[in-house]
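[Automated response] Your request has been received and processed.

Submitted sequence:
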Amino acid sequence: MAYQSLYRKYRPQTFDDVVGQGHVVRTLQNALVSGRVAHGYLFTGTRGTAKTTVARLLAKTLNCESSTGPVAEPCNVCDACRSITAGTAVDVIEMDAASHRGVSDIEEVRRAVGYGPMQLRYKVFIIDEAHQLSSDAKDAFLKTLEEPPANVVFIL
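Generated structure:
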C-alpha cells in the first residue's frame, strides 16, 4: 500500500464529515437539492476552516453520476466522484492563486472557460487563495467571473 499523508487520508469525503461548518453545508445542500446552482461561490474564513475541502465536495456533488442532477451528498463510488477525489478530473481545475497570481495565469483560466465540460456535468474552477491575485489579474478575471458560460462554476 502506498503512503498517504494524514491530511489526504482524513480529509472529509462527504458533507456529513465536515466539522464546524454546518451552516455552510446546509446552505449549499439546500441550493443543490432545489436546483439553484450559482455560477460563482466565494468562501471566506481563516486558515484551516475547510474552505478548499468544501469546494472539492461541492465539485463532487455537482458532478456526481448517482443522479441526473446535482445531489446533496456525493456517492464517492461513481467515476466522477472517484476522479475528483484522485485529482484526475479534467473538468475540475484547481489553481493556487498564491503562486499563480499574474494576468497570464488568469488568461489560461479564461481560455479554459471557453471550452465546455468534456467528461462531467459541470466544469468547476477552484481558485484557492483568490485574494492574492494581482490587481491586474483581478481586473482581467472580472468579466469571465460575472458572465461565465453555462455549466461553468467558479469557487473562490
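Summary generated for your ticket: The radius of gyration is 15 Å. The first strand starts at residue 40 and ends at 41.
If you did not submit this request, please reply to this message.
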